[in-house]
Write a structure and sequence with these properties.
Length: about 525
């Protein structure tokens, strides 16, 4: 593509970006909401999409050929869609909790998140864990309380639970008129609109009625008297009881706007999208070793937050997912990876439109591109034109399952170590080399990761692995301001000490109780369950 054509295309690119993820406990409705967001965005901009599609057709078929040739299937890792002048990049996160580590890393590449909560179940374990990661990074959260078309907890209970368990101010943006069998619709506070459920089949969104406020007599004409009385009482109470929306508090991660809705019935989805457009932040500066890198910086930079391997044993290819942090990335550009100390030519970057993939001619800060490679790029890598940038903040989580690896053929232990090291660097597993003995320990966050490990070791390295229990259940990275204390710990508890794949000291313990005892006995040592990749 000529420079002029590229610039013309640039002009057609939406000016703004919203790069976000959806966090939730399995079954809360993330998949349904994702579909409805895409649908809602597509429906609004059908004409624009049809026009853009012709433009993109050639690029897409190029990519399809690459995909077939290399046999990589990039599932729905990233979905990009446009609404008005805004390009939304929705980063998918694996639903199964065994892959939550991938989810955590994905959260380092977003600027905001939607927290989906099931109106019947409230805050669940996985939601809470993911929320904590967002909090670590001050990621602003928009809350969607889903399934109000079904019987659920009272809206007040749900709001209070969020406020109390997550220590977060809540500001409702709309209010459900009844729930379950008595669900009549949703009242939008900001615009004083009543979104009515179509009672002919009980659930499909029906008319939107403009009100002047909750005391509008039109409300009495539109809804049954008891529903109106209920809405006025609850709606007014809620407005008085919870803080008004405050943009700064939201951007600081101290307040969450809350939308009630039903993803399945498309209630509140459009409001949620409008909310994201209006107050979710555009791409901001990214933390790096020598100070944050602003999106306005002219030269291109980005970091790899996820690597997806090819499950076809005949191909060693990978797709590395990079978040562009600054500059305008053009296809064919050369970017330097400081870990490898060399420049890589980005020949076939991929972008992801809705459910399609295509070659990216241009990507801006906040965009995600997939970079096909043969295993050269790893989670945590920085790529930049400058060559001296190293982004920080990608978390490693202490494993919750520790296993000894058993190899069928002991003659192949060197190959096994290479395979384990490779997969550890890719971020699939964690390896620990105990200070005593030669048996490496493998650590994972979820049991399914062990299945992935054995499948890939067999397919890619021709090794059959077995796993045996290890004496340990808990691993913590240890550090101290006073180096001599760390040395003393090492010397006193050599049999519990190990090194991770990067040579960082780790303490392996039998259980949480032992962990508590160590923390008591060694007050000047820090025992970390999260470590930043650098
Ligand atoms: P997940 O990705 O977070 O795991 O959730 P997913 O969207 O798959 O939704 C989980 C279940 O909840 C689905 O039912 C889905 O249809 C249902 N669901 C999602 N949003 C709503 C909603 O707004 N209202 C209602 N009533 N249900 C909703 P399923 O797995 O197909 O089971 P089934 O309930 O259809 O049998």
């Amino acid at each position: 593509m000529s420079e002029a054509a590229l610039l013309a295309r640039t002009d057609h690119q939406p000016a703004e970006r919203r790069t976000f993820a959806i966090i939730s406990h399995p079954d809360a409705g993330k998949t349904t909401l994702t579909e409805k967001l895409l649908y809602s965005a597509g429906a609004i901009h059908e004409a624009g999409e049809v026009r853009a599609r012709g433009d993109r057709r050639r690029a897409r078929s190029d990519w399809m050929a690459i995909e077939q040739q290399r046999g990589i299937s990039v599932t729905s890792s990233v979905m990009t869609f446009e609404v008005g002048n805004i390009l939304f990049n929705l980063l998918d996160t694996p639903g199964h909790q065994d892959f939550s580590e991938d989810t955590y890393r994905t959260l380092t590449a977003v600027d905001s998140a939607i927290m989906v909560i099931d109106a019947a179940k409230g805050i669940e374990a996985q939601t809470r864990k993911l929320f904590e990661v967002c909090r670590l990074r001050n990621i602003p959260i928009v809350t969607f309380i889903n399934k109000v078309d079904r019987e659920g907890q009272s809206p007040f209970n749900l709001l209070d639970e969020i406020a109390e368990t997550l220590q977060l101010d809540v500001s409702p943006r709309n209010w459900p008129v009844g729930m379950g069998g008595l669900f009549h619709g949703i009242y939008d506070y900001a615009e004083n609109k009543l979104l009515l459920a179509d009672k002919s089949d009980g659930t499909v969104p029906g008319r939107v009625v403009q009100m002047t406020g909750m005391d509008d007599p039109l409300l009495d004409e539109t809804l049954p008297a008891d529903a109106v009385a209920h809405l006025r009482e609850e709606g007014e109470l809620a407005r008085a009881a919870y803080p008004d929306f405050d943009l700064d508090a939201f951007l600081n991660g101290d307040l969450t706007p809350v939308f009630f809705g039903s993803a399945l019935r498309e209630f509140g989805v459009r409001q949620l999208l409008d909310g994201l457009s209006t107050f979710a932040p555009p791409p901001g500066p990214q933390p790096a070793r020598n100070g944050p890198v602003a999106p306005s910086e002219a030269r291109v930079s980005g970091f790899i937050f996820k690597v997806q391997a090819n499950m076809d044993p005949n191909h060693r290819d990978r797709i590395a997912f990079m978040r562009v942090c600054s500059g305008a990335l053009k296809r064919g550009m050369k970017l330097t990876n400081p870990r490898l100390g060399k420049a890589i030519s980005i020949q076939n970057p991929i972008t992801f439109f809705a459910r399609d993939r295509e070659l990216a001619e241009l990507a801006r800060p906040g965009d995600i591109v997939g970079i096909p490679n043969h295993g050269t790029l790893r989670v945590g890598d920085t790529l930049s034109e400058r060559g001296d940038i190293a982004f920080t903040g990608l978390p490693d989580f202490a494993p919750e399952i520790l296993r000894r690896v058993h190899l069928g053929d002991p003659m192949k232990s060197k190959q096994m170590r290479k395979g384990l090291s490779d997969l550890a660097e890719e971020g699939v597993i964690r390896i620990f080399k105990p200070a005593l003995g030669s048996n490496w320990i493998v650590g994972v966050v979820g049991a399914l990761q062990l299945d992935v490990l054995s499948t890939r070791m067999e397919a890619e390295y021709g090794l059959k692995l077995g796993f045996e229990p290890s004496p340990w259940e808990v691993a913590r990275w240890v550090s101290a301001d006073d180096d001599s204390e760390l040395k003393r710990l090492l010397a006193t508890h050599r049999s519990s000490m190990a090194e991770d794949g990067d040579g960082e000291p780790v303490l392996l313990m039998r259980n949480e109780w032992e962990m508590g005892r160590f923390a008591q006995d060694w007050p000047s040592i820090r025992f970390a369950s999260i470590r930043e990749r650098s």
